[in-house]
Design a protein that fits this description.
With about 240 residues, the protein is an alpha/beta fold. It has 2 domains: about 10-135, Response regulator (Rossmann fold), CATH 3.40.50.2300; about 140-235, Arc Repressor Mutant, subunit A, CATH 1.10.10. About 40% of the residues lie in helices and about 20% in strands. The protein is built from 9 helices and 14 strands. It has helices at about 15-30, 40-50, 65-75, 90-100, 110-125, 125-130, 165-175, 185-190, 200-215, and strands at about 10, 35, 55-60, 60, 65, 80-85, 105, 140, 145, 150-155, 160, 180, 225, 230-235. The strands form 4 sheets. The chain has a 5-stranded parallel β-sheet, with helices on both faces. Strands 8-9-10-11 form a 4-stranded antiparallel β-sheet, with no helix packed on it. The protein has a 3-stranded antiparallel β-sheet with strand order 12-14-13. α2 (about 40-50) runs parallel beside α3 (about 65-75) and α7 (about 165-175) crosses α8 (about 185-190). This is Stage 0 sporulation protein A homolog. One of its GO terms (cellular component) is protein-DNA complex. It comes from Faecalibacterium prausnitzii. It holds the Pfam family Trans_reg_C.
Length: about 240
């Protein structure tokens, strides 16, 4: 994977509403490869069909428990895992971590906390791989963007952090630099095929992105609007 947002995620939880919410939030954060299951049996089949780069496992499942499932899957491959549980006993948390899990989060939890923990696990677990596949810096005039670490370096040396959504948008635009990327293509790149409802958010994220990329966000030199169609990341010399 080129960045953590290319990682394949497997989420196992018997609560369909929570699964839908997790998928929505993770896709909104830029993760595009998410598979979900609601049982241990389905999780094992999913794991065998396509090995994930991160597992998010509930502990209480209808046909077993997340601890046993984790041991069975980790016997096949050393995949990092985050446990979710409604049980907040220290003994459960320590037991899960003692099995080799990377983190443990007690329900109910703040979604932003889960997103941060997922980000940190992936960065820590795949640091070497990410460094090998690190994309070249994106130069926008006097500003330089590190697409791997999601950092914009200003001429005076100050740095600005990109959000996951801003990074996903910029990656899509950079891949097609010099060409128009439609509104639909950008929404799909960030929020997946089921992006309906997010279209109105796109302009807000583009405005915030311009504030970090452009010396004059109100008169953008690089991130241009193509009215009625989409946006284009120019090379700077276009009028």
């Amino acid at each position: 994977m080129d960045t953590i947002y290319d990682a394949k995620l497997l989420i196992v939880d018997d609560n369909a509403d929570l699964l839908a919410l997790l998928c929505e939030q993770l896709r909104g954060a830029g993760y595009g490869h998410i598979r979900t299951t609601q049982s241990c049996a389905a999780a094992r089949a999913c794991f065998a069909a396509e090995q994930p780069e991160l597992m998010i496992l509930d502990i209480n499942l209808p046909d077993g428990d997340g601890f046993s499932l984790f041991r069975a899957l980790r016997a096949k491959a050393d995949v990092p895992a985050l446990f979710l549980s409604a049980r907040d006993a220290d003994a459960d948390r320590l037991f899960g971590l003692g099995l080799g899990a990377d983190d443990y989060l007690t329900k109910p939890f703040l979604m932003q906390e889960l997103l941060l923990r997922v980000q940190h696990i992936l960065q820590r677990a795949y640091r070497a791989e990410l460094s090998r596949t690190k994309p070249a810096p994106l130069q926008l005039g006097e500003r330089c963007v590190d697409l791997n670490d999601a950092i914009v370096t200003l001429p005076e040396g100050k740095t600005l952090a990109l959000t996951a959504t801003e990074l996903a948008l910029l990656r899509k635009l950079a891949e097609n630099r010099g060409h128009i990327v439609t509104y639909d293509a950008l929404c799909a790149a960030v929020w997946g095929a089921d992006y309906y409802g997010y279209e109105n958010s796109l302009g807000v994220h583009i405005r915030h992105l311009r504030e970090k990329l452009e010396a004059e966000p109100g008169a953008p030199q690089f991130l241009r609007t193509v009215r009625g169609i989409g946006y284009k990341l120019t090379k700077g010399e276009e009028a």
